[in-house]
Amino acid sequence: MAGISPQDMTAKVGETLGSSEWITVDQDMINKFADATGDHQFIHIDEEKAKLTPFGGTIAHGFLTLSLFPLMSAKSDMPRVEGVKMGVNYGGNKVRFLAPVRAGKRVRGHFKLLELTEKRPGQWQQTLEFTVEIESEDKPALMAEWISQFFV
């Protein structure tokens, strides 16, 4: 995919930029996230106990779903700003966990550009609306306004 200049990208503010490929959130991914974060609550890792909850089985951590942002972004059809030397997370304005992602489900991200401004020469700050869709479900897993900066 050809690159786009940061200046041309500013014309896309308010537009949906693209969607990611589907990603399977399996029990192995959930277990590894539990180990990495120390969050071993039974609803995430104990398949037998989790069956007795309203979820009917294990679910992904909300923060695991949020942490898929970089992977989904990389596996998306969004336009790429040309000449980026480095990108960093800056933070979030809003994050809402709306529905659980059950183990074995597939999810994909949708990205809408809310804001893009040049903070200093060559340093750009963007705010994206990031929505995670769960395959075959009406309600998204999460919606977030995520802020990042990139340097050209």
Helical fraction: 10-25%
List low-pLDDT spans: none
The end-to-end distance, rounded to whole angstroms, is: 18 Å
Over the alpha carbons, how many angstroms does the gyration radius reach?
17 Å
C-alpha geometry = elongated
Number of strands: 8
The total count of helices amounts to 6
Task: Give short descriptive properties of this protein.
elongated, 40% strand, two-stranded parallel ribbon, 24% helix, 8 strands, six-stranded antiparallel sheet
Care to give the gist of this entry?
With 152 residues, the chain is of the alpha+beta class. The chain is built from six helices and eight strands, in the order E-H-E-E-H-H-H-H-H-E-E-E-E-E. 24% of the residues lie in helices and 40% in strands.
Care to describe what's here?
By secondary structure, the protein is α+β, with helices and mostly antiparallel strands. It has helices at residues 6-10, 27-37, 42-45, 47-50, 62-67, 69-74, and strands at 3-4, 16-19, 23-25, 80-81, 86-97, 105-120, 123-134, 142-151. Strands 2, 3, 5, 6, 7 and 8 form a six-stranded antiparallel β-sheet that branches. The longest helix is centred in the N-terminal third of the chain and has 11 residues, at 27-37.
How would you summarize the topology of this molecule?
Blueprint: E1 3-4, H1 6-10, E2 16-19, E3 23-25, H2 27-37, H3 42-45, H4 47-50, H5 62-67, H6 69-74, E4 80-81, E5 86-97, E6 105-120, E7 123-134, E8 142-151
